[in-house]
Amino acid sequence: MNTDQFGLAGDDYVPDPDRDSAAIVDGFFDHITAALRNHDLPDGLSTAMRTRLAELEAANAHHIVDAPAEYNLRMTLALVVAYRELRPRLGREAAIAILRAAFVEPVGEFVADSTRAMLDVAPDPFAAMVAVSKTREEQTFGAGFTFVRPVDDERSYHVDVVRCFYHDVLVDHSAAELTSVMCEFDANWIGAIQPRRDGFRFDRATTIGFGGTHCPFHFDRVDTE
Length: 225
Fold this sequence. Notes:
Number of strands: 4
Order of helices and strands: HHHHHHEEHHHHEE
Shape: globular
Strand order of the largest sheet: 1-2-4-3
Structural class: alpha+beta
Strand content: 5-15%
Helix content: 55-70%
Radius of gyration: 18 Å
């Protein structure tokens, strides 16, 4: 069985934002459909959400500053359309809990397995992880995000997100409280890192979505002996 569903392993890794965002959005709406049934809400709401998503994407084309932004916009607006339908029916906290599970869980195992597969085959897991991070910063996140790199050497790579595209779009739609849902998706790959095994640790003390001024993504080598 191929555990590297996202193709992270190897020196020729190239992100596929179209494929990856489609998997996330499709999994999201499948999960939402199941949640609607669990709460005795009509299945048709899911179809209405997908229709509204396409309409909202067209209305928010001004947010598309480069190719990655098109796919990042779709994922972010999927949260917005679902929230607008669920919050009036279920309340704020219940709606956010459903959105969090729907966004984080469906592809979580694939993300974790791909990350673990990449680290297992890498001669230097730290260097491999830094390379993937840098590639994704450019090709998956793009110009909608602003990155500052206070440390980038052989032992540490610290990249701080000081502007978040997801947060900007959610603020624009009066749904800033959903930014943390996007942040929690990262737990899927963060949890795959094993410092003693991989020779590095990852720290993210806060995020913009959780009230921080920036999102610190810090990778540091550790002694394994």
